[in-house]
């Protein structure tokens, strides 16, 4: 599947009907989501990290790209991948490794080590990634102001606008509360990604607030792990 096919899924969507992208952490979970009828997938770095025995943010780049490749080989739908802050790779190498792994999209965070990066410098990096990728990758620019900043919606909008101007296909104000998500939607042209959380708005409500697409981070992997623990407890019992 191509990035253009994935990109098309984000456009001309009915109001309140976001693209729902489950987050597989291995080939088996990817196949399960595709068998359920989802048209595309979004690999969460934290879910992959947990499946490989690492803390979130500690997965070596080689292992992350190998995990992405295993997932893309297992399914015939577009796969986007969270590649954290890019692992320090030059834009050309980053793009090449994503394409070699079979991904048609990526998330790139504007924080590193829990610290927000300069927005203009990050926008310049996004522009370099876009130049290296052309139209071969759907670039989802994560905005981390609600994780590592003051949580100011105006700052999130300002960053998102810079990233769209740099060539991002979508912006992702992760962990934005409902009112802030609506503010980003009102202030930015183009698709907006919302994170569905157990204590946050439901998927349909995210759509009504203006989300073009909804992802789940590592929540689905954690639910599967909880189910495995419950089963293990029953077996022990």
Give a quick summary of the entry:
The protein is 48% helix and 14% strand. With 237 residues, it is of the alpha/beta class.
The helix-strand sequence is HEHEHHEHEEEHEHHEHEHEH
From the alpha carbons, calculate the radius of gyration and give it in angstroms: 17 Å
Largest sheet: 5 strands, parallel
Low-confidence runs of at least 5 consecutive residues: none
Physical arrangement of strands within the biggest beta sheet: 2-3-4-7-8
Overall 3D form: globular
Average pLDDT over all residues: 96
State the end-to-end distance: 46 Å
Number of helices: 11
Estimate percent helicity: 40-55%
Strand content: 5-15%
Give the class from helix and strand content and strand pairing: alpha/beta
The count of DSSP E runs of length 2 or more, i.e. the number of strands, is: 10
Characterise this structure:
The chain has 237 residues and is an alpha/beta fold. 48% of the residues lie in helices and 14% in strands. The protein has eleven helices and ten strands. The protein has helices at residues 3-8, 27-35, 45-52, 61-74, 91-100, 119-133, 145-148, 153-165, 178-187, 203-208, 219-236, and strands at residues 19-20, 41-43, 79-82, 105-109, 111-112, 115-116, 138-143, 170-173, 193-195, 213-215. The strands form three sheets. The chain has a five-stranded parallel β-sheet with strand order 2-3-4-7-8. α6 packs parallel to α8 (153-165) and α8 (153-165) runs parallel beside α9 (178-187). The N and C termini lie far apart (46 Å). The model has no long low-confidence stretch (mean pLDDT 96).
């Amino acid at each position: 599947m191509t990035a253009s096919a994935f990109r098309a899924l984000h456009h001309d969507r009915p109001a309140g009907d976001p693209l729902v992208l489950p987050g597989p952490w291995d080939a088996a979970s990817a196949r399960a989501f595709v068998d359920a009828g989802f048209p595309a997938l979004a690999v969460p770095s934290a879910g992959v990290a947990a499946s490989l025995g690492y803390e979130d943010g500690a997965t070596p780049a080689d292992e992350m790209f190998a995990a992405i490749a295993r997932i893309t080989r297992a399914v015939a739908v577009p796969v986007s991948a969270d590649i954290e802050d890019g692992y320090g790779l030059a834009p050309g190498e980053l793009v090449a490794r994503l394409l070699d792994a079979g991904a048609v999209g990526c998330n790139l965070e504007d924080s590193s080590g829990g610290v927000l990066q300069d927005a203009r410098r990050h926008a310049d990096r996004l522009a370099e990634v876009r130049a290296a990728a052309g139209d071969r990758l759907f670039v989802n620019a994560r905005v981390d102001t609600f994780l590592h900043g003051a949580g100011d919606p105006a700052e999130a909008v300002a960053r998102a606008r810079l990233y769209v101007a740099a060539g991002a296909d979508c912006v992702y104000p992760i962990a934005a509360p409902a009112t802030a998500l609506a503010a980003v939607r009102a202030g930015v042209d183009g698709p907006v990604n919302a994170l569905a959380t157990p204590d946050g708005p439901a998927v349909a409500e995210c759509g009504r607030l203006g989300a073009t697409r909804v992802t789940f981070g590592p929540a689905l992997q954690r639910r599967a792990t909880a189910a495995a623990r419950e089963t293990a407890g029953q077996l022990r019992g």
